Amino acid sequence: MTGIALQDIAWHRSVGQLIEALDKPSFWTQLVRLLEQYVAFDSWVVLLFSSAQRPQVFAECPGAGGGPDPLFQDYLKGLYLLDPFYIASREQSQTGFFRLAEVAPEYFEQTEYYQRYFRLNVVADEIQLNCQLDNDRTLCLSLGSTQHFSPEQIALLSLIQPWVIALLRQRMPYQEVAQNQPAAHWHKQLEASVNQLKGAQLTI
Q1: Would you state the torsion angle of the CA atoms of residues 102, 105, 107, 112, taken in this order, to the nearest 10 degrees?
Q2: In the structure, what pLDDT confidence band is assigned to residue 149 with cuts at 50, 70 and 90?
Q3: 170: nearest Cα among 1, 5, 23, 8
Q4: Spatial distance between the Cα atoms of 34 and 9, rounded to a whole number of angstroms
Q5: Staple 138 to which of 49, 101, 169, 189, CB 3.0 to 4.6 Å?
Q6: Would you state the pLDDT for residue 3?
Q7: E strand or H helix at 132, and its extent?
């Protein structure tokens, strides 16, 4: 064990658990909880950016009171068109780790997007871990903070980004299956499981 920190061991164990959870609904929550152990942030959302439609939301942190965030609904209705991260992904979609300071325009705090959304919902800083899926689609994990991310936090996120982006890419096929499944599918699956259980009890 010489030269291997306990924190390193915990990280590799957690990544292994995430790989096991790639096909499970809990994947996004597990990923965010892992990142929270290393970097503090106040909000998060998983989005699919494309030119064909408004952003698709795969997972997000709950709003105040546990319900949908009204401001985020405004974002999805059209404010996303002013989002520097969205604009950057459309102008030059690429895989990587991106900071707000790298994509925001000069005098960002004077923009309509900042005044109507960012200062109220994100507040201070934002980073995105992006996985380019094809020429048009970009899968994004966005982390928002009410304080600016420190140089140490940025360095850590840069260090682990290959792991996170690889997990995003591997998750996408399962996400597409989940998005395309009709809501009734789960009810049918549950009913089938109950019937199987009843059958098993009858044969005892």
Answers
A1: -120
A2: very high
A3: 23
A4: 13
A5: 49
A6: 57
A7: strand 125-132
